[in-house]
Design brief:
Layout lengths: L1 E5 L6 H11 L5 E5 L3 H17 L5 E5 L2 H5 L4 E4 L5 H8 L15 H25 L5 E4 L4 H10 L4 E3 L3 H13 L6 E8 L2 E9 L2 E2 L1 H16 L3 H7 L2 E2 L4 H4 L1 H11 L3 H16 L19 H14 L3 E8 L12 E9 L2 E4 L7 H23 L2 H10 L6 H14 L8
Parallel strand pairs: 1-2, 1-4, 2-3, 4-5, 5-6
Antiparallel strand pairs: 7-8, 8-9, 8-10, 11-12, 12-13
Helix pairs in contact: 1-2, 1-13, 4-5, 4-12, 5-6, 5-14, 6-14, 8-9, 14-15, 15-16
Length: 417
């Protein structure tokens, strides 16, 4: 089975190679596709060495030609970043001038990333439609995952979105309980980067109440929310919920920090790229964990295996709502446990969502619908409407001013602007 990795020059890629080498014996060829030949020259060889170290027999090569890379692929994994960390830095900076969150996947920065990303991903998907094997799957790890997945599905592609938040929390909770990760299932509720865990089931028993009781302070620090949020509501919000629950605090922190997350990541990436050029390096470096994306490879390989081998196991993915949440349109994309097999991913029936979550999910889903439309069709009015609909903007004067700034900051990536 051939796997094409779009954005193969990412510093994440050796993590993916490690997971493929350990967990995907059926992969026979991996092609890393990236327009940045210098990155490929560093990332390609170390990924090759990692796979060989495990004795995996797959061929791994790299190219800047997506037609060549995708040709005959059974699956296409997309992990690209348009404009690199430099555009992320801008996404995380200028919204603060309007007293709003600067972040790469939500708020105005998230909208900017979606608008740069979605058209390119759809071009890649059209190549896959022509050149990949019939029935090939697209696995999207590119943020904002929910919106990118919705755009892919709306265009008729066989696509599933993937995020590592759920697997990260599953591994974290299981370590606190000293149980095997695969023995735990999460009741993971919401949209991509807007999720809560409301149960952590081991052997038929929900262990989340005892986790909060016994480890609440540690868990609260891990997800960036006060202990009272966990105690008062009996659930664990993802780290991204702090951007909503404590927006003004976070904006103040960003103003005082003097360094964006993008700048921190750039420092780690520069160090990683230097390490990758070492011809003796054949293991993923420890500092790769600072880059983010923990357990990405395990989640990606598990999803790939289930789609190709028709295992019908349950994984947390981004998928069409299709009646799962009755308060959302069927075409909305949600992030939930789903049964995954050769036919795709089907959400597991979920308990009713309480108003605390339901209101914010519906609000953000409406924004995402407008954001995808703006990314696909352009137009200042559509961008302004999406910003006005976002709960972290939501005021007409701010939305209007931020629209002009967003378009100016991204003029090189939005020809219509």
């Amino acid at each position: 089975m051939k796997l094409a990795v779009i954005g193969g020059g990412s510093t994440y890629t050796p993590e993916l190679a490690d997971g493929l080498a350990r967990l995907a014996p059926g992969v026979t060829e991996v092609v890393l596709v990236d327009p940045d030949s210098e990155r490929l020259a560093a990332v390609g060889p170390v990924s090759q060495r990692i796979m060989r170290r495990y004795g995996h027999q797959a061929t791994l090569r790299w190219t800047d030609d997506p037609e060549d890379g995708i040709d005959g692929a059974a699956a296409v994994l997309i992990q690209l970043r348009i404009g690199g960390q430099a555009t992320r830095h801008r996404d995380e900076t200028w919204p603060g001038e309007f007293c709003c969150l600067g972040q790469e996947t939500t708020g105005a920065g998230g909208l900017a990333k979606a608008m740069r990303t979605i058209p390119t991903v759809l071009k890649i998907a059209e190549i896959a439609r022509r050149r990949a094997l019939p029935g090939a799957w697209i696995i999207d790890f590119t943020n904002p995952v929910g919106m990118v997945t919705r755009a892919l599905l709306d265009a008729g592609h066989r696509a599933v979105g993937l995020c590592n938040v759920a697997i990260g929390l599953q591994r974290y909770f299981s370590s606190l309980l000293d149980v095997a990760p695969e023995s735990m299932t999460l009741d993971h509720v919401g949209l991509n980067h807007l999720t809560w865990e409301r149960a952590a089931v081991v052997d038929g028993t929900d262990r989340l109440p005892s986790l909060i009781a016994d480890h609440g302070d540690e868990i609260a620090e891990h997800v960036g929310s006060p202990r009272s949020v966990l105690d008062n509501h009996g659930l664990v919000p993802s780290y991204y919920l702090r951007y909503y629950y404590f927006h003004d605090e976070v904006v103040d922190e960003q103003r005082k920090s003097g360094k964006t997350r993008a700048q921190a990541v750039m420092e780690v990436e520069n160090e990683l790229l230097k390490m990758y050029t070492d011809p003796d390096l054949d293991t993923k470096p420890e500092i790769l964990s600072k880059r983010g994306g923990a357990f990405y490879s395990e989640a990606a390989v598990a999803l790939l295996s289930s789609l190709v081998s028709d295992t019908n196991d349950t994984q947390v993915v981004n998928v069409r709502n299709n009646g799962t949440y009755r308060f959302l349109d069927d075409n909305a994309v949600i992030e939930v446990p789903a049964v995954v097999g050769a036919a795709g991913a089907a959400p597991v029936a979920a308990a009713p969502v309480p108003p605390l979550m339901r209101g914010l999910i519906a609000h953000m889903s409406a924004y995402e619908e407008l954001a995808v439309d703006a990314a696909l069709r352009g137009g200042r009015e559509r961008v302004a409407a999406a910003l006005l609909a976002h709960p972290l903007v939501g005021q007409y004067p701010a939305a209007e001013k931020m629209t002009d700034r967003l378009l100016a900051e991204n003029a090189d990536f939005l020809p219509w602007a």
